[in-house]
Amino acid sequence: GNIPEIARKREGCVRKYMNHSFKNSNLFKTIWDLISPLIIYYAGYYVGYFLIAMILSANHVTELPEYANPVIGGICMLCGLLVLIPEMRQERHFDIFPKERDFGMFGVTLPILSYFLIVICAISLVVCLNHLILFSGLSASSDSFQEVAKSQYSVPIGLGIILYGIIAPLAEEMVFRYTIFKKLTRLSGRMGYGLFVSSFLFAIYHGNIVQGIYSFLLGAFF
Hints:
- By secondary structure, the chain is an all-alpha fold.
- It has 9 helices and no strands.
- The chain has helices at residues 3-24, 27-58, 68-92, 111-136, 138-141, 143-153, 157-188, 191-206, 209-221.
């Protein structure tokens, strides 16, 4: 038979079923599905924080270097991800979207080229947003953003790359772009719904206007 046609029909049936399930689900279940990945992640995060506090207290550690809090935060992020693994594995089994998409302009599937283009576009978008926010004056007028920036710049450069270039992005991508986005898209049957809501939650998660605007636009792009 025509395999692509069968796949499209199957995907259409799955979408109709998800739309029906989403429309007929009660409000409490919808809200729980929306926030449950964050609750699970933060449960693991604060369990890790509590364990670290117990270890420091047992060893009578009362003074820590200035960059200790970001390091502890990075460890707690990994603890949150560890607890979230069952949820991520569950969403992996519900993926209805094709792994590879056909690039019409080339007529062939080019996953390697697509990743390269995504990286170039992401870097360009980051540079543009950095300059727009800088010239707008938002970064200078937001006290909460200044506190975050001060905390992040307090760590040595090598440690900062590990914390803010690897651990934090890994945690955020797995929570928002993998688990929450896929869950919302699966439950609603609409990718736009999952894209907007997950990006909005990602913006709220940062807690200040500068990172909120920045992360919403970047989150939607990613």
